Amino acid sequence: MTIYYSLTFVLLAAEMVTFCLLVAPFPYQVRKKLFKFLAESPVVAKIAYALKISFIFVAILFADALQRMFRVTAESDLAKSGQNDVRIETNLAARKFYSQRNTYLTGFTLFLSLVLTRTFYIIMDLIHTQEEYAKLKKAQSKGDDASKEIAELKKKLAEEQAKSRDFETLKKQSSQQAAEYDRLATDYNKATGSVSDKRKD
């Protein structure tokens, strides 16, 4: 395998390891810190930029390998229809195998790069959604606490209003009883002909 296909294989292996790390069941806080680091680190941004350039070269290699595979397949079909030389057939079969291997290697590398990118952004959206959900849940719990406090205050206000009404009723009854007592005392004094101490004062 030539050096550029060897580097493509190393890149494919690195992509597989990265994919396993992305989908690993880490706890929420660990995953949040990891993805925040990957999204905000300038070093990771430079590596991602270099990988984008390398994927352009892999795409060129993929196009070249695909063209070679079609050409070797056509030569193999032509050789099968013609002379049956074992050495030529073996040579063509080996060339066909290598061209297919190179096509699959570069194709899977490109495909996995797309999968990795999409998976990264999906997990980032998931983390963002979980953060928003936690904020809403916290705000809702604060709202529940506030509504409980409002209910308690309303209950206390109703109790105070009931006490105030009772006090007003008691005050009215007291004033009515005092007026009735004064009337009765006046009638009694008139009937007996005596003058009360109030009148003297």
TrEMBL record:
It is a multi-pass membrane protein. GO terms for cellular component: endoplasmic reticulum membrane. The chain crosses the membrane at residues 7-27, 47-66, 104-124. Residues 165-185 are annotated as: Disordered. It is found in: Endoplasmic reticulum membrane. It holds the Pfam family Bap31_Bap29_C. Residues 148-200 form the Bap31/Bap29 cytoplasmic coiled-coil domain. Residues 1-135 form the BAP29/BAP31 transmembrane domain. One of its GO terms (biological process) is endoplasmic reticulum to Golgi vesicle-mediated transport. Keywords: Coiled coil, Endoplasmic reticulum, ER-Golgi transport, Membrane, Protein transport, Transmembrane, Transmembrane helix, Transport. Belongs to the BCAP29/BCAP31 family. May play a role in anterograde transport of membrane proteins from the endoplasmic reticulum to the Golgi. This is Endoplasmic reticulum transmembrane protein. It comes from Lyophyllum shimeji. The gene is YET3.
